Every structure is written in C-alpha cells, then in structure tokens.
Amino acid sequence: MNNIKEHIKNRRSVRSFDGRELAKTDIEKLTSFAKTIENPYKIPVDFKFMNAKEYGLSCPVTVGTELFIGGKIKYTENFSVAFGYSFEALVLYAQSLGIGTTWLGGTMNRAAFENAMEMDDDQVMPCASPLGYPAKKMSLREIMMRKSIKADERFPFENLFFDSSFDTPLSKERAGKWRDALEMVRLSPSAVNKQPWRVVVSENAVHFYLKRSKGFARTSKLDMQMIDIGIALCHFDLTAKEGNLNIIFEQNDPKIESDAEYIASYRLT
Q1: Sequence-ordered list of residues with C-beta below 8 angstroms from that of 150, at least 6 positions apart, any chain
Q2: CATH code, domain carrying 233
Q3: Whole-angstrom distance, CA of residue 126 vs CA of residue 228
Q4: What is the mean pLDDT of each run of 10 residues along the chain (269 residues)?
Q5: Enclosing domain of residue 98
Q6: At CA 100, angle to CA 99 and CA 102, rounded to 5?
C-alpha cells in the first residue's frame, strides 16, 4: 500500500453508502491484504466478511450496504492496541480501493455480530465496519453525528506532542524527521474524536502515551481508547517507514514523569 499519507488525509468515516455491492475483485483484494497484516505485538487478527441479511446483523447508523467486516483476536495482554493497529491497516487499504468504512464499537447489535464471528472462548471481537462505496451525499443523520463530535477537527500539534518531557510542547518546526509521521498520528480517528494519544519525542525515539478521557475507564474487555492508540501507532509506523525512517518497535518505559499511561516506543536503528 503506497501513498499512505494521502489515504490517511482523504479517509473519513462513511455511514451512507450508494447501495452497490462491492466488486468481486475488491473483495478479493481486501481478503488477500487482510491475510498479510501484522501488528507490532505479533497478535493475529482474524477478519470475516458478513452479510447483514444472512447473519441477522443491524447497525442503526449506517445505510446503503449489507456488507460488514469484523475482526476477532485472542484476549491477551496488549490485544486492544494490536487490534487497533491491524484493523486500521485494513481500513486504510479499503480507502486506497475507494471503499468506505467506519469503526463500529457500540452502535450495532453486538451479540449478533459476535455470534456471526464464531469466536473461541478466548477470543473477542472489539470492532467491526460496514463496507461499501460512499454515497454522493451524506444522510442527515450522518451529518448530525459528525457535527456533534466535531469529526473534522483535531487538536493542535503542540497539544499532542512534546519535546523530551511533558513540560515542553513540540512545534512542527522542532519535530524535524518525525514531523510527517506525527502529523498522521494527529489525523487519526478515535472514539467520539477524543484523540487520547500523547507522544514525547527525543532525538532518536518517540514514546506513545494514553491520556484517558473522562468516561473511558477500562471497565470491560472493550477498551476503545487502547484501540485508538493502536490506530495512532499504525499511522505512525506506516508513515515513518514509507518515509524511509529505519525504526524498531519496543516497550521500554523511559520513565518520563506524567499522569498518562506509557504504551510503547519507536526508536531509530
């Protein structure tokens, strides 16, 4: 998948589709790509295409498509972040094919989706997405939903990224070689657009943290803000590598003083 920055910039959540079935060739491409997806935690995600009529699925916020894709993953340490990374990689590939998606975590009949995914006892299905070709016009419901969460707005660069410690905001000018990858992190989608990622940048490494939003405490297997961090890691990783930065993923807490939760780092080799 090339031109990752353009796919990130152009992609938006799509809830209104034009009613056409996906072309067989597009389904084949998505299926083949899904089998190649890996995340930094090496926890596989199994994807499944599901027809709403066949499986009795419903989603009140989408119109114009009967096709969904879900992902299941083993319930183990770091599974939410790993899932977010892998599912976003699929979402971005769909965008490259002109296929619309939107992350579904709660606005669906979850029991039916989970039953359709045929999960083992040690697996969970954090999220799913509709698949289809975007309608020329958004529905009124979709327009109102996007307006309510300010879907097209993002926090300023300096509010999300920091220079060596959380005491010093990082400007785009100071970001240097990390600038493009961090900007793609800034554009990442997140649950209710809360943008919970924070990143501390040093000369040779970037450290990702989770700044939890009110009302998003980890209370069940569904940890949407950890999934959001996985999305951000995906954007950073793919952009940095396409920009020829030789980076490795690691979990090595730099012990930077903060009330945010350390997640992971990328370091130049």
Answers
A1: 193
A2: 3.40.109.30
A3: 12
A4: 94 95 97 98 98 94 95 96 98 98 92 95 96 89 78 90 96 95 97 95 95 75 92 98 97 94 97
A5: 4-141
A6: 145
